[in-house]
Write a structure and sequence with these properties.
Length: 204
Amino acid sequence: MPRNPILSASRIRAAALHIIDRDGLDGLSMRKLASELGVQAASLYGHVSTKDDLLHEVAAEILEKVDVSGFEGGDWCSGLRSAARSYRAALAQHPNIVPFLAYGPAHREASLRRLDVVHGGLVAGGWSRREATMIAAGLMYLVFGAALSSFSSGFSEDQALYRDRYPNLDKAHLLPGVAQELDHDSFELTLDAFVTGLVARAPG
């Protein structure tokens, strides 16, 4: 057995993501990561240059689960739906990294490759390049808005807080108990409205 644990890029990424899931994005440091892996911090730099580079690598691994294959079949509606659902599912598994991903795709190869497929699929479907950019942006707004927090999270389960002062919210205290169902159904409603609205405006 080697005295020091054997490091690999995949093991470093997995440990970093574990820390982010457990302690939040600000909880990740190279020193803490090294401790988690049982090595000295200097050992990490043979595999990753900076914490920011590591975050991009972790993000790329998460984004591998985003399915943009629907665009390659020529059906941009199906492509939008499958991309949105798989993107939301990938982010839901690791919500603490969402703020980092929300900065945009400009420095991430994995994000740019998927965006290229989305953009190309929309243009092939008859949309102008400007319109394709707007639709892709709209898709990101929808996905990240759904991933950042649960709509129900801000509501109290105390009925008295709403019953008298807000008569139209007299059932608001029930929302935390159905948070998962509400978030899913609300996302699907919004996604359907988004795609249906685009179909009504589609060129040709």
